[in-house]
Amino acid sequence: QVQLVESGGGLVQAGGSLRLSCAASGRSFSTYGMGWFRQAPGKEREFVAAIRWSGGNTNYADSVKGRFTISRDNVKNVVYLQMNSLKPEDTAVYYCAIGPAWGTPSWTYEYKYWGQGTQVTVSS
User: Fold this and answer.
1) CA angle 108, 111, 114 (to 5 degrees)
2) Distance CA 18, CA 13 (A)
């Protein structure tokens, strides 16, 4: 059974940093893309970042470019999201998901398996 477990969320002041982790189990994901999404209260789930299986291609939402970095460790089956210069508008539940092997799409329907999410709260 495929399982994704996010961790690393919490409460941080504006300007601070957090690193989220997503551990995958149940199968090897080394040939699949991985993505991070987030959902704030009352809003739709939105794309944050994605990385191709090799780690050589990444894609970021404009709102996080230059502040967030996605990376992965295919040996450990873990994907990370380093978040720097956090802003109150980054407050949301962050989800990781398994995406297609062919690229780094930003559409949620391209992602099959999802974790339960981890809360990130940025205070002003």
Assistant:
1) 100
2) 10
Give Cβ neighbours of residue 103 (< 8 Å, ≥ 6 apart): 33, 52, 57, 59
Mean pLDDT in residue range 73-87: 95
Please name the residues in contact with 109: beta carbons below 8 A apart, sequence gap of 6 or more. Answer: none
Q: Give residue-wise pLDDT tens across range 11-70.
A: 999 999 999 999 999 877 778 999 999 999 999 999 999 999 887 899 999 999 999 999
- Kindly tell me if the per-residue pLDDT of 2 is higher than 80: yes
Tokens 């780690």 sit on residue: 55
Q: In this structure, are residues 37 and 45 in contact, taking their beta carbons and an 8 Å threshold? A: yes
Sequence-distant (≥ 6) Cβ neighbours of residue 118 within 8 angstroms: 6, 7, 8, 9, 20, 93, 94
Going by their DSSP bridges, the two strands 68-73 and 3-7 should be labelled as unpaired
Place of tokens 């802003």: 87
